[in-house]
Every structure is written in structure tokens, then in C-alpha cells.
Amino acid sequence: MTTTNDQNAEAGWLRVLTDYLLCFEPTDAPGPDIEIKTTDEIINDLASMADMEPNPVADTIATLGFHSFHSADGMHGWMLRRRQP
Description:
This protein is α+β, with helices and mostly antiparallel strands. Helices cover 41% and strands 20% of the residues. The protein has three helices and four strands; from the N terminus they run αββααββ. Strands 1, 2, 3 and 4 form a four-stranded antiparallel β-sheet that branches. A hairpin with a 5-residue loop joins strand 3 and strand 4.
């Protein structure tokens, strides 16, 4: 059984991640206005806010509609288009 503290901890990291991702919109094609970030880079961006594990973070990013990018030269990450204000 999950305790209230465990539920609060999960809710905390998930809120931090989803609030961060609200600054971006999913895209399915790379381009000049697209940022490519790995799961670890996103976790590092948010490290001062919450402790996160890569697999649940990647699952959440994918569930929210973001697509991964893999180039022939080995570059990979999530494609993120910054939302316009």
C-alpha cells in the first residue's frame, strides 16, 4: 500500500515536471525552433525542485505527446518547441 508521504512525493515531482513541460509543445519533426533535450538533461534542469528517476520521467513525457529524436550522428533526445507567450 502506498503511504500518503509516497503519494505526496510522487505528486510533487510530477507537478514540477508537468509545469516545466507546459512551457513547451510537442512536435513530431526537428527544425530550427526545436530544442532537443535528453531525459537526463530535463531531470538536471529540475534537480533543485525534486528528485526524479529517468523511466517515470520518460514515460510522462511520452504520455504527454512528446516525440523522441535520433539522428544518424548519434544525437538523441526529446523534441521540444517552446510555446509562444
